[in-house]
Amino acid sequence: MNAASPDPVLAIDIGGTSLRLALIGVDGRLHGEIASYDMPFASDGAADLAGLFDLMTTHVERARQSLSDEPMIGVSLCGNVDLGSGDAILAPNLGWRNLPFGRLFSERFRLPVCVATDVRQAVLAEAIWGAGMGLRDFAWATVGTGYGGYLFLNGRLYGGAHGFAGNFGHITLDEVNGYPCGCGRRGCFETFVAGPAIARAGQAACEAGQSAILSSLALDGEVTTPMVFRAIELGDEAATAIVDEAIRLICINLGGMVNLLDLSLIVMGGGVTEAAPWFIERVSSDIRAYLMTTEAQRDLRVLRESMPNAALWGAAAHVFAAEGLFSGDVRGDVLEEGIVHRAIRAW
């Protein structure tokens, strides 16, 4: 790969339930199609790393054969990632703690790889190619299998002291009566608003006899998040109340962040936001009630992600920025300050 005409990057997005891969160019253009797989899990409930690597192998070898130079890989991973080592410090939805993912990946495929948390990659993609272009301050929020985000402050990514800033999904809402969280604590916002929380509330409504529609949709007795949104379309009051409450709590949570940082833009993504065309519009409308200043109420924009999968695009952007391959006004100094950004070469 060279700065004059960099090859596309093989971008990989490892989510809580799915794996996606695509070749993405330095201009943000998709080369070919996005491949998608269900996440393989082992019998102990953790994501199966060997099975995951097996799913990637065909795509890595195809990139190796089709690109003129040594292909580079960018990975987006749903959890806290050490930017220097690529270690998955905590990936609750994958059941990983202190897994040396970057080293294991690089050793397996004998290729350089950049690894970072998915929400960080998403905000980077929006800053370079999306809604955040030209802005100095904005945030990304994901509502999917988990709930959280990342920050872009003073013209660059902001990771905080350890690279984990933006975990507003793990602000405690109710540690006494709340639900256990994958992070190891109880009562985090994530456990009330993410996809599994919506499904859990739907299951409870179904078992309490509060929703005949959900009962009819859950033929095997198990309520899923898409079923809750389908029940809303069919006029179900219990399902409507469940999602209304999730939106209310999201607005309280994100509204607090806006009050703290005086942001004018939040970009949102994730499977729950895609479940209904009105979801993000509702957040944009309802959050105004929790904003302190007239200026924030007037100026805040809450927008849908600018690309099919911002975390996937951001995995490619990470490589281009870390390797100094962007040209013009896009520079490596959009990345976090105080960190040496480079690909992991462990073989």
Structure write-up:
The strands form 3 sheets. Strands 3-2-1-4-8 form a 5-stranded mixed sheet, sandwiched between helices. Strands 11-10-9-12-13 form a 5-stranded mixed sheet, with helices on both faces. Strands 5-6-7 form a 3-stranded antiparallel sheet, with no helix packed on it. Helix 5 packs across helix 7 and helix 8 (237-261) crosses helix 9 (279-286). The protein has 347 residues and is of the alpha/beta class. The longest helix is centred in the last third of the chain and has 25 residues, at 237-261. The protein is 35% helix and 19% strand. It folds into 2 domains: 9-123 and 308-334, Nucleotidyltransferase, domain 5, CATH 3.30.420; 134-304, ATPase, nucleotide binding domain (Nucleotidyltransferase, domain 5, 2-Layer Sandwich).
Question: DSSP helix count?
Answer: 11
Indicate the low-confidence ranges by residue numbers: none
How many beta strands in the DSSP annotation?
13
Structural class: alpha/beta
What is the CATH homology-level superfamily of the largest domain? ATPase, nucleotide binding domain
Find the CATH topology of the largest domain.
Answer: Nucleotidyltransferase, domain 5
Which strand order do you get reading across the main beta sheet?
Answer: 3-2-1-4-8
Rounded to the nearest angstrom, the radius of gyration is: 20 Å
Count of separate structural domains: 2
> Looking at the structure, what is the overall shape?
globular
Fraction of residues in H or I helices: 25-40%
Mean pLDDT over the residues: 94
Distance between the termini: 18 Å
